[in-house]
Amino acid sequence: MTGLAGLLEAARRLHEATPSLRDFAPWPRDLRPVPKPPVPCPASALLAGLPARAPLLAETMAVADQLEWRRTYSADEVGQDFLNRYGYVELYGPCGHFHSAQSRGYIAFWDAGLDYGWHDHAAEERYFALHGSPLFLSRSQPKARLQPGETRSHASYEQHAMRTLDTPFFCYAIWRGAGLAELPRMSA
User: How many DSSP H helices and E strands does the chain contain?
Assistant: First the structure.
């Protein structure tokens, strides 16, 4: 498979082969393609510097210029440097390249040395690290440095933050539950 279908297939294979992802949310069965124009962001060009060992990362790199890259926050909230070195793609979900009302699946990238400040959202979340080892912080669980192949979960409205430290971070993230169509918000 090639293009966006190949990217979706790589995500499905990872999702279904990983018990911690499967158990968090089943692979959505209501997917339908939604045509979206490509929207570049500065961070998407930074993917080229990563080793494409994981199939999902390799597929993302192959179609990066076809994806609708997003950046939820404003420069006032996170700073222009953060915006230039961060981006995500909603692969599937209410606003994704593939529509689903069952869950939301993201592919996300943060460059090295970024501080993703305290934020929260209604949906429950699980990160799956594919590259990098960021430090995750939470107001309700111990801090942890995630390694490739590991997950980190956050409950609904759990305030959390992340620091990428010395390596870029590339991940697959899933949202489930209430608030699926809402975006995260920076916490006070």
Answer: 5, 12
